[in-house]
Amino acid sequence: METIKVGIIGATGYAGVELIRLLLGHPKAKITALCSVSFEGKPISEIYPALYQINDDILVDEDTVIDQCDVVFASVPHGVSEQLAVKCLSKGKLLIDLGADFRLHEEQDYQQWYHGSYQHPEAHAHAIYSIPEITGDAVKSAQVIANPGCYPTSIAIGLAPALKNGLISKKGIVIDSKSGVTGAGRGLTQNTHYPECNEAFAPYKVGTHRHTPEIEQMLSELAGEKLTVTFVPHLLPVNRGIVSTIYADLAKEISAQEIHQIYQQMYGKKQFVRVLKLGDIPNLKNVRYSNYCDVGIFVDDRAKKLIVVSAIDNMVKGAAGQAIQNMNLKCGMDEDCGLHLVPPAI
Amino acid sequence: METIKVGIIGATGYAGVELIRLLLGHPKAKITALCSVSFEGKPISEIYPALYQINDDILVDEDTVIDQCDVVFASVPHGVSEQLAVKCLSKGKLLIDLGADFRLHEEQDYQQWYHGSYQHPEAHAHAIYSIPEITGDAVKSAQVIANPGCYPTSIAIGLAPALKNGLISKKGIVIDSKSGVTGAGRGLTQNTHYPECNEAFAPYKVGTHRHTPEIEQMLSELAGEKLTVTFVPHLLPVNRGIVSTIYADLAKEISAQEIHQIYQQMYGKKQFVRVLKLGDIPNLKNVRYSNYCDVGIFVDDRAKKLIVVSAIDNMVKGAAGQAIQNMNLKCGMDEDCGLHLVPPAI
Amino acid sequence: METIKVGIIGATGYAGVELIRLLLGHPKAKITALCSVSFEGKPISEIYPALYQINDDILVDEDTVIDQCDVVFASVPHGVSEQLAVKCLSKGKLLIDLGADFRLHEEQDYQQWYHGSYQHPEAHAHAIYSIPEITGDAVKSAQVIANPGCYPTSIAIGLAPALKNGLISKKGIVIDSKSGVTGAGRGLTQNTHYPECNEAFAPYKVGTHRHTPEIEQMLSELAGEKLTVTFVPHLLPVNRGIVSTIYADLAKEISAQEIHQIYQQMYGKKQFVRVLKLGDIPNLKNVRYSNYCDVGIFVDDRAKKLIVVSAIDNMVKGAAGQAIQNMNLKCGMDEDCGLHLVPPAI
Amino acid sequence: METIKVGIIGATGYAGVELIRLLLGHPKAKITALCSVSFEGKPISEIYPALYQINDDILVDEDTVIDQCDVVFASVPHGVSEQLAVKCLSKGKLLIDLGADFRLHEEQDYQQWYHGSYQHPEAHAHAIYSIPEITGDAVKSAQVIANPGCYPTSIAIGLAPALKNGLISKKGIVIDSKSGVTGAGRGLTQNTHYPECNEAFAPYKVGTHRHTPEIEQMLSELAGEKLTVTFVPHLLPVNRGIVSTIYADLAKEISAQEIHQIYQQMYGKKQFVRVLKLGDIPNLKNVRYSNYCDVGIFVDDRAKKLIVVSAIDNMVKGAAGQAIQNMNLKCGMDEDCGLHLVPPAI
Asked: Of A337, B3, B105, D130, whose CB is crowded by the most CB atoms within 10 A?
C-alpha cells in the first residue's frame, strides 16, 4: 500500500502535537501539512522545541491542509469542525475529528450540553463514532470519523462487557474519573498555573461535564436502553493519564472470576485492551505514552457492587492514538500500524 | 492554666513529626520528651533537619516519655498501643492514640480487619473515639483517646448531616477517596519510591482497606442503624491531603439549597469545618497544613444523588491536628488552642 | 506596645497573599486594609479560597490602605512603588516595598536593567535596603524599606562572611540558582502552565536576570570594592524555595573547618540563619514555609574553591517573611515577632 | 543483515527496563534473554506491569543470557561486570557495560573513587569507552564497550568543541548538574521516598561524586592535558533528565556567534546532538524519552565566561539509548537504528 498523506488542523494544540509525535513513527503515513490559526507562518518546532530538527514544517492554513492531504485530523474548538467536514466531504478527503461536533447522535443533546445547534446537519449523516474495541468495523463506512472523548473512551471500555452481558444494573452507575492536566489543553488558566495546580487536587464540573451525554449515549447503546450516569471528573496533578473508577450494582450473583472471564472473552484478542489478572490494579503510569487501556475487575461482595478500574493515556488512547487507530481501520491498514508504543516503565 | 507537659511515642513517624510542628506553636503545651525505637539516642533534628536549632531533643525510650509527661501521644504500628494504654492508665497519664488499637468498638471487627485480638480488653473501656465536630464533648470522659483515622475523618464529617437528618439512603453509599503519599508513612516501599509514585495514580486495597470498619462504625452510629459502604482509596502524587468524593442516593425530594442549609446548621459554629458556598468545590490545596475540613454539597438531579466532596490535610485534621484538638477539649482548653493554622494559598 | 495597623497593596499577588498568611499570625500587627487593582470590591477569599472564613476582607483601593494603616506593604510591578512612597512619606506612613523600585542605589543601574528612570528621586533618599542579618539596624532610620529580592537574599547571606573576611577572590564568582515557580508570580505564562512546567527544568535569562545588579551591589559592599558575578537562575518544578550553589576561588589556604567557624561567628546568634554542620547539605524542603536561610559550606580542595549552598523559601525569607522581619526591627518589636514558623518536615 | 540476539543482565534495574523499552522497537535486534538476580523465575512484566502482554519473558540467570545472545548489555553494580567481561570474551560475545567497571583508564582512579581494584586487568585491554559524537568509530574495535555515565555524557558533549578548539581555560571549570530521580536507580532510600523527594531540591555528594574522574578523563583527552573540574550534582524532583550548566573562562576574545559556529561544525551532522539557535535554552522536557542531547551556548561578556547548557534524558542518551547507539556502530548498523525516538512535547 502507498503512503497516506496526512495533515493536522489545530496542530499546535496538545492533541495536535501528540498526533505529530505518533505520525512521525507511522510507517505508512506522511505528515504533509500542519495548520495553526494562531501560529501560521511559523515552524511548529518554534512552538514546540521538542520537535526541533525532527519536524520544522511551517504552519499553514486549513485549506492548504485539506488540499494537500488524503486524511485530515482536526483538533479544534467545538463548533469549528462542521465546516471542515463540509469542505472535506466536497473534496473527498477523510476527516478525523478529535472534537465534539460529530460525537452526539441527537442534535438536542448537543444543544443542551454545548449550547449551539448544527449548522450543517447533512454532514452528520456521514459521520461514524468509533471506539474500535466496541464499535468494531463500523468506522469503515465513515467519511467523517467522530473520534471519542478521553473520559468516554476510558469508561465505555471499562463497562462494555458488563453492560452487554447484563451483569450490572443500568441504574445508579457512578463514575469517578481523574485526569491529568494535558486534558485541559494548552490554553492558560489559573487552575492549571503550576503553583496552583501542583500539590492540589479537586473535582470539577461536578455532574455537569460535557462528556456526560457522550458517555450516556455509548453506555445506552451497550445496555440496549437509555441510561443515566453520575459522572464526576477530577483534575490530577500529573501530565497524562485518566483513571476511571466505576461503581455499579451487580444485577445477579456472579463471582469476580466469572466476570473476569467475560471481560477476557470480549477483549482477549484486542491488542490495546489489557484485562489485568484478578487482583492487579490499573495504574496510569503503566499506559502513559501508549495506546493501551488497562482494565481491572473487582467485586465488593459486602455491597454487591462491581468496581471496574480503567486507565488510559488521555493523549493517546484518549485522543491521538485512537484517531490513528481509526485511520488505520478505515484505510485498510493493520489496526496497530504505527501504534507499537511501549509505555515506559519509569 | 498551667502548661501541659506533652510527649510523643513514635516521634519520628510522619504523624509524630507533624505533632512536633504543631505543638511547637501551642501556647499551653510543652514538648517534654520524644521517643523513637529506631533512633533512640539521636537528636530528632538529625532525622528531620527541618527541625535543626528548633528542636534538637534527644530521642528517649517510651517509659521516659510516660514518666515525664502529662499527655502522651502515640503514633505507633497497630498492636503496640494497648500496652502503652495500660502503662498510662496505671500512672494517670492521658494517652492519645493516633493508631487503630482503640478505634473499633467491637473486638471482632479488629480481629477481622487487623488479624489480631485484644491483649488488654480492660483498657478499651476507658477509650473514647472522638471527632469533636460529631462526637462533641464525649472525649472529656476519656482516659484514652482513640484519635480517628484520616479517611474516616474526611468521610464522617462529609456525611454526618445527611445521615443524621435522613437525607440519604443508607444503602449503596460509594466513597471514592484520594490521599497524598504522607498517608502511607515514612516506611520505604516500591510504590512510594519517587520515580514510581510521581506521574502515577491508581487505587489500592480496593474494597479491602482497614479503615472500612471504622468508617462503617461511625456512619452506622450517625444513621442509627448498621450500614455497609463501598470504599476505594487512591494514592495521589502529592505530599498531603485527602479528597473524598461521596455518592449517596437521596432519600427524598430535596434541593441542594435545603441540604446546604442543614449542613450549615450542623457546622456553622464549628471552627474547623467550612461548608463552602453552593457551587464552590473543595480542593486539598486550600486546607493543606491546616486543621480545616472543607465540605462541598452537590445534587445530581438526573440520578437523584447527593454528592459530597470533603477535603482535609491528612496529617493535620486527619492526624496530628485533630489529636491536639482532642487534647484541648479533654484538658479544658479552647478547642482551637494552638491550631490557628492558616493554609498557605500557594 | 500597641497593635500596628498594616495594609497590603497588591494583596492578590503571591507575595501579597503570603504576607496575609504570616500577618494573620503576628501578635502585634492587625491586617486593616487590602488593596488589589484587579479585584477591587471582591473579598480576598474569593480569589484565594484557602482564606475562606479566615479573612474575607473586601479588597479596596490604594488610598484607603494608606489612609487606614500605619505600615503599608507594597508588592506591585516595578515602577509603581515610587508614587506610593511619595504618598506614604507625605502622610507619615511606613512603606515596605517588596518590589525593585528602591533596591538599587544608582539610578543608572535601574535604567540599565529596568529600562526606566526615577520619577521621584527625592523619595529614594529615605529608602534603606535591608537584609537584617547583614545590614543590621540600618533599617531603623528608614521611612521607606527596600525589601530585598529573593535571589539576592539567598546569595548575600551565603557569601557575606566569605567576602567580609577576604576568604575568596572577588573575581569569577559563579552563582547557579534554582527557584520554585511561585517566584514567577501569579500571572499566567506558557512556561508556568502545568503540563509544560511539570517534569521540566531549564535555566532562564542566562546572564541577564534583573536581580544581577542588586546581587552585585550587595556583594560589592561586602567586598569593599566593585565586583561582577556570573548569575544563572533556573526554574525548578516545585512551588517554593530557592537553592543557590555558589562557587568562588579561595583567596588563601584555609580549611573548611576554619571557614565554618567564621560563618558561625557571623551567624551564630542570628535566629534565621542556620549554618549547618560541616557535611550537612541545605535542602529547600527544610526551610519551606519558614523564614530560615540554611547555609552549607564545602571546600573543593582539588580546585581550591569554596562552594556555598544556601536555601530559603522564596516567599518567606525571600519576600513576605523578611518584609515582616524588617517591619519588626523598624517598629521596635522583637525581630522574630510573628515569625516563629516551623518548616514542616514533610 | 540478520537480526541480532540481545540480552540484558540486570534487566529489572531502571537502565535495564529502559533497554527493554528501546530494544522492543529496534528493527534488527531481538530480546532473547533477560537476567535478574533478585527476580529470577518471575516474568519481567510482574516487576514492571507496563510491559504486561508486551514482554512477559521469564527472568533467567546470567549464564543463560551469555549463552543465548550475541550482544549482552549489563547494568549491574560496579565490581560485577569484570567477570561478565571475562565470560563474554571467552565465548566471543559482545559485552556492553552500562556500569563503571570499564570506564576509567587508570586503575588508580578506580581505586581512589570506587575503593576497589581490578580483578581481571586483562579484560580492560579489550574495552573501549565510547561517546560516539566524540570518540567516533573507536568503538568498532571494542570487544567490551564501556558505556559512559549520564553526567559525563551531558558534560563531555557540552564542552568538547570548546576544549578541542582551545576556546576556554582549562582551569577553574565549574559544572553544576541537575538530575532526575531515576538516576538514583530502583533501590529504595529515604532521599527518594516520595514525600521527602517531592517539593525538595538539594545538591548531593558535593565535590565527591564518582563520575568526577570519568568527567576529568574525557575532558582531559579533549583538552590535550590533564585538568581538574569542580562538579556538583543536584537531585531534581522529576523522573528523567539531566541539565548541566557549565561555566568556563574564555581563553580569548570570541563572540557567541563564533562559538556557536564552532559547535555547529562539530555537531551539525551528528543526529543526536542539537545545537540550539543562539538565545534558545535547553530544557530537559524537550529531550525526555529520546536520545537527543540539546546544547545551548551563552557568553557572559561582563565576566568573560562561556556558559554551556546541555540537556539529555539520563535513561536514554545517558544510559540505554547510547548503549544501543554503541551497539549499532559496533555491529555495522546505522547509528540511529531503533533510536528514532520523538521526545513528547507534553
From this structure: D130
Cβ-contact C293, B53 below 8 angstroms: no
Cα–Cα dist A272/B250, whole Å: 39
Label each residue of chain D as H, E or C: CCCEEEEEECCCCHHHHHHHHHHCCCCCEEEEEEECCCCCCCEHHHHCHHHCCCCCCECECHHHHHHHCCEEEECCCCCCHHHHHHHHHHHCCEEEECCCCCCCCCHHHHHHHHCCCCCCHHHHCCEEECCHHHHHHHHHHCCEEECCCHHHHHHHHHHHHHHHCCCECCCCCEEEEEECHHHHCCCCCHHHEHHHHCCCCEECCCCCCCCHHHHHHHHHHHHCCCCCCEEEEEECCCCCCEEEEEEEEECCCCCHHHHHHHHHHHHCCCCCEEECCCCCCCCHHHCCCCCCEEEEEEEECCCCEEEEEEEECCCHHHHHHHHHHHHHHHCCCCCCCCCCCCCCCC
Q: What is the pLDDT of residue B239?
A: 98
The DSSP secondary-structure symbol of B142 reads -
**Strands ordered across the beta sheet of D144-146:** D29-35, D4-9, D71-74, D94-97, D144-146, D127-129
Residue B2: what pLDDT?
83
Alpha carbon of D346: minimum distance to chain C alpha carbons (Å):
6
- Which subunits have 3 or more CB–CB pairs within 8 Å of chain C? A, B, D
Residues A239, C198: C-beta atoms closer than 8 Å: yes
Mean pLDDT across chain A: 97
User: How far apart are alpha carbons D39 and D69 in whole angstroms?
Assistant: 20
pLDDT on residue D1: 57
Q: Sign of dihedral through CA atoms B76, B77, B78, B81?
A: negative
- Angle, alpha carbons B273-B276-B278 (nearest 5°): 150
Q: How far apart are CA B306 and CA B162, in angstroms?
A: 9
Are B201 and B181 in contact by the 8 Å Cβ rule? The answer is no
> Does the distance separating the beta carbons of B232 and A207 come in below 8 Å?
no
Chain B contacts of C17, Cβ < 8 Å? 345-346
Has residue A157 got a pLDDT over 90? yes
List the single residue in B17, B53, B343 with the smallest CB-CB distance to C346: B17
Q: For position A2, what pLDDT does the model report?
A: 82
C-beta neighbour count of A67 within 10 angstroms: 16
- Does the distance separating the beta carbons of B189 and D239 come in below 8 Å? no
List C-alpha distances in Å: B216 to B170, B230, B338: 11, 10, 31
Average pLDDT over residues B100-104: 96
ipTM value: 0.97
Q: Name which of B109, B113, B174, B259 to mutate to probe chain A: the one with the most chain A Cβ atoms within 10 A of its Cβ.
A: B174
Cα separation of A6 and A4, whole Å?
6
The confidence score (pLDDT) of residue C1 equals 57
As a whole number, mean pLDDT of residues A59-87 equals 97
**Does B202 sit within 8 Å of A303, measured CB to CB?**
no
Residues A84/A85/A86/A87 CA torsion (nearest 10 deg): 50
CA A8 vs CA A32, A71, A80, B165, D57: distances in Å: 9, 9, 14, 56, 39
Distance from CA of A280 to the nearest CA of B (A): 10
- Is D196 a residue whose pLDDT tops 90? yes
Average pLDDT, stretch D266-282? 98
Q: Which three cell numbers stand for residue C189?
A: 505564562
Distances (CA, A) of A169 to A174, A263, A293: 11, 17, 24
* Residues B322, A320: Cα–Cα separation, whole Å: 47
pLDDT in tens, A180-228: 999 999 999 999 999 999 999 999 999 899 999 999 999 999 999 999 9
Instruction: Name the one residue in this structure whose C-alpha cell is 451487580.
Output: A250
Pull the grid cell for residue A166: 447484563
